[in-house]
Amino acid sequence: MIYFDDTGKHIRPELLNEEALKAAEQFVELNANGRPTNEAIKSSQLRRFFNEFKSLERQFEQQQGDVDDAFKSIKPLIKMANAKVVYAQARKVVPQAFVTWLQKHVQAIETARDFKAFLLHFEAVVGFCYGRNLKD
Question: For the chain, what are the domain ranges?
Answer without folding.
Answer: 43-131
